[in-house]
């Protein structure tokens, strides 16, 4: 296919798609939730020993930090 045929075929596909979209009925309702207060209070249970548990599972650590190299997770 040459460049012009690809362009024409792409234009036809986009036009057919646009016509199909016009046929779809929409309720046109907003899905946004507006609140006066934008921050919420955490009321769930917290995991008290999260840091210790996380460090236990780390393969390479130094006291309070997990040591890793950029891209090391890919291997």
Description of the molecule:
This protein is mainly α. Helix content is 39%, strand content 5%. It has two helices and two strands. It has helices spanning 3-23, 50-57, and strands spanning 61-62, 65-66. It has a two-stranded antiparallel ribbon with strand order 1-2. A hairpin with a 2-residue loop joins strand 1 (61-62) and strand 2 (65-66). The radius of gyration is 27 Å and the shape is flat. The model has no long low-confidence stretch (mean pLDDT 82).
Write a concise synopsis of the structure shown.
With 75 residues, the protein is mainly alpha-helical.
Taking the alpha carbons of the first and last residues, their distance comes to 40 Å
Order of strands across the main sheet: 1-2
| Morphology call | flat
Q: Could you tell me the mean pLDDT?
A: 82
Rg over alpha carbons: 27 Å
Strand tally, please? 2
What is the H/E string?
Answer: HHEE
Estimated share of beta-strand residues: 5-15%
Structural class call reads mainly alpha
Count of runs of 4 or more consecutive helical residues? 2
The largest sheet is: 2 strands, antiparallel
Which stretches are poorly predicted, pLDDT < 50 over at least 5 residues?
Answer: none
- Measured as a percent range, the helix fraction is 25-40%
């Amino acid at each position: 296919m040459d460049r012009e045929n690809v362009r024409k075929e792409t234009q036809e596909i986009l036009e057919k798609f646009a016509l199909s979209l016009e046929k779809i009925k929409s309720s046109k309702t907003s899905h946004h939730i507006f609140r006066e207060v934008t921050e919420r209070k955490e009321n769930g249970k917290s995991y008290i020993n999260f840091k210790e548990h996380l460090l236990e599972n780390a393969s390479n650590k130094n006291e309070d930090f997990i040591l890793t190299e950029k891209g090391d997770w890919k291997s």
